[in-house]
Amino acid sequence: MTWKDAGSWAGRDDGPGAQNARWHSTIKPWKAGEGAGSALLGFASDEGVRRNKGRTGAKTGPGALRAALSNISLHEPANLFDAGDIAVEDRELEAGQEEFANALAGLLRDGQFTVGLGGGHEITFASYSGIAKALGADGHWSLGCLNIDAHFDLRVAETASSGTGFAQIAEAEAAAGRTFRYAAVGISEASNTKVLFDRAAELGVQVLLDTECHLGNIDAVRGFVAEFAGSVDHLYLTIDLDALPASVAPGVSAPAGYGIGLEVVRAIVVAASASGKLIHADIAELNPDFDIDQRTARTGARLVNDLIMNRG
Ligand SMILES: N=CN[C@@H](CCC(=O)O)C(=O)O
Ligand SMILES: [Mn+2]
Ligand SMILES: [Mn+2]
């Protein structure tokens, strides 16, 4: 790991002290044993998106998220660490996922709450693998995977991609003798074939459709998250930015024609964070090449901030 993209941590300076704190003036490079806090770990990859025939460019997502986080004001004391990036080079996705998993497990063992900065949604299997390593691969723990996404990412294919993450997790959980626990929120009927809906039903996936995720239904949405979190030992939250409307999140591989509103996504994120079960979260699919005026990066950064600052 390297303290790459350190140049991303720069911004407005209104003076010293906690009253003027922002991310860029607070965050430090991570070193083991410096106390529990929240640690960022980037996954500079879009190989999964390339394999899934999407629009590449997400590998510069971690740096763009750091740049958008930099100026966000901090109203409470926070122990923030940056553990750098794991970069996927030369189409070596599986090796990169393994490297990310090892680095993540080290951060979790050090007592950090961790946030992965994607990268394509192939970060999901890397995140899951790191959590499993930290918890003990053969253990009897239960992990709930909560995905905010327009897509199930349950594709079954010869090679891993940004669209196969939860099928890979289902297989790994079955091999370890555990039950696959997956809740997907924001799923679009228009963007997932019947094959994928049938696979989700076979795997017992709990689903909230995009059309159900609106402010008029917010209590039910919060209840869905709380109930899912209450049913597992540990919760892993993954946010695919293509769950949001294309007007809010244009900088993704597959912009949403419908999408769920930011108020609802934030309510889900805060409910997950406040559940007391959240062990790790990540944010995926930011593609700065297609962003407009940092819209998607700023939205993603705000969600990362609110996730970390609302921990239960
Ligand atoms: N990360 C997942 N992506 C979607 C991509 C859909 C698309 O490119 O239209 C999926 O595989 O279903
Ligand atoms: Mn998606
Ligand atoms: Mn996805």
TrEMBL record:
UniProt keyword list: Histidine metabolism, Hydrolase, Manganese, Metal-binding
Catalytic activity: N-formimidoyl-L-glutamate + H2O = formamide + L-glutamate
Protein name in the entry: Formimidoylglutamase
Ligand binding (Mn(2+) 1): H121, D149, D153, D240
PROSITE patterns on file: ARGINASE_1, ARGINASE_2
InterPro entries from the UniProt entry: HutG, Ureohydrolase, Ureohydrolase_dom_sf, Ureohydrolase_Mn_BS
Pfam families listed in its UniProt record: Arginase
Top-rank taxon, per record: Bacteria
Gene that specifies this protein: hutG
Annotated pathway: Amino-acid degradation; L-histidine degradation into L-glutamate; L-glutamate from N-formimidoyl-L-glutamate (hydrolase route): step 1/1
Protein residues bound to Mn(2+) 2: D149, H151, D240, D242
Cofactor(s) needed: Mn(2+)
Gene Ontology molecular-function annotations: formimidoylglutamase activity
UniProt EC number: 3.5.3.8
Cofactor binding mode and count: Binds 2 manganese ions per subunit.
NCBIfam families: hutG
PANTHER family documented for this protein: ARGINASE/AGMATINASE, FORMIMIDOYLGLUTAMASE
Known role: Catalyzes the conversion of N-formimidoyl-L-glutamate to L-glutamate and formamide.
